[in-house]
Amino acid sequence: xxxxxxxxxxxxxxxxxxxxxxxxxxxxxxxxxxxxxxxxxxxxxxxxxxxxxxxxxxxxxxxxxxxxxxxxxxxxxxxxxxxxxxxxxxxxxxxxxxxxxxxxxxxxxxxxxxxxxxxxxxxxx
Amino acid sequence: xxxxxxxxxxxxxxxxxxxxxxxxxxxxxxxxxxxxxxxxxxxxxxxxxxxxxxxxxxxxxxxxxxxxxxxxxxxxx
Lengths: 125, 77
Known about the structure:
heterodimer, A: alpha/beta, two-stranded antiparallel sheet, 8 strands, 22% strand, B: alpha+beta, GMP Synthetase, Chain A, domain 3, 3-stranded mixed beta sheet, 3 helices
């Protein structure tokens, strides 16, 4: 595994909620990335974002790992939830909140913060 | 036309679909909304339902025809 793939896997495995998106939560570069982010925000989820636009290799490695062809991709506790449409549908039906509670515990939203992880260097903003 | 190509790929993958549509959301031929109803979705999670659609559209997803894809899947019941 490449160092980059290793870091991506590390983020997926270690962060409770990961959103691979185009841009950052402060400046989303794509409507679908915004929709997934807003659906997660509406549940008060602790979102760790990875901007795949930083380098094309991020998307390549991620797709290979998840088998999912499009961006955004949402992971909860290491497991792929889906893209923007699934995340939004699950949010609207209440299933996303349920999933977050089941996987992270009922208090998952307490003190939840948004973070951005740079998988190229391994640093957090 | 990309819409026709996508529709025919989906029709091949979901020949029984009572509802199947591809909409060019922006008119630019690369942002699409696809809606599919099929018995193939029954008993599957939303994730696996979308996987089937992504698989049917693997080629246009890979070659860049599809820049943005929105998917709505439904059962037939």
